[in-house]
Design brief:
By secondary structure, the chain is an alpha+beta fold. It has three helices and eleven strands, in the order E-E-E-H-E-H-E-E-E-E-H-E-E-E. The strands form two sheets. Strands 1, 2, 3, 4, 7, 8, 9, 10 and 11 form a nine-stranded mixed sheet that branches.
Amino acid sequence: MVQVILFNKPFDVLSQFTDKGTEGSTRRTLSEFIEVPGVYAAGRLDRDSEGLLVLTADGKTQNRIANPKNKMTKCYWAQVEGVPSDDALQSLRDGVKLKDGMTRPAKVERMEEPPFLWERNPPIRFRKNVPDSWIKLTISEGRNRQVRRMTAAVNHPTLRLIRYRVGPWTIDGIPNGKWIAAET
C-alpha cells in the first residue's frame, strides 16, 4: 500500500511547498502545514479554493490521481451567486461550452450549506440584493479553474469553492488546515 496525505487546504494557500512568485512574496504554502519529506501534490487546487488536496511520494499514484486520462472523479461544493434554475443545473449535467471546448457531463445537485463548514478568512462577499446557494458538482476532468468557469457559463459565478472528494478520499473528519495519513 502506498501512503498518501489527505490535506484540508485553507483558502489563500498555494498547492506547493515553495512560493515561486515574485521576489519577496509572502504567500502561504504547504510547508506551513505539512512537514512530511518527499511528498508532493497529486494535482492542484487553486489558491482561492479550499478543501481536499491529496499528496504522495509515489509517481504512479500521483499520475493515477492527476492525469485526466484516468478520469478519477472529484466532487466540489460550490457556493454560487443566485439560485440556479433546473435548466442551469441541466446544462451543467449535459456539459457546457467553455473557451477550451465542451466539458464532460457532470453530476450536479442542489445542496444545503455543509453543516460542519469552517469560517473562511477572509469571508466571501455578500450582496444584500443577490441571494446565494450551494451546489454539489462531480466532474471527471481537471481543467484549469473548471468548476468556476462552468458555474459562470450558466450565469451563477462561484463565490466559494471547496473540493470535498478526490476518488475514494474525502475531507470528512479533517479540520481545515490539518492533514491525515491514508493508504491507496
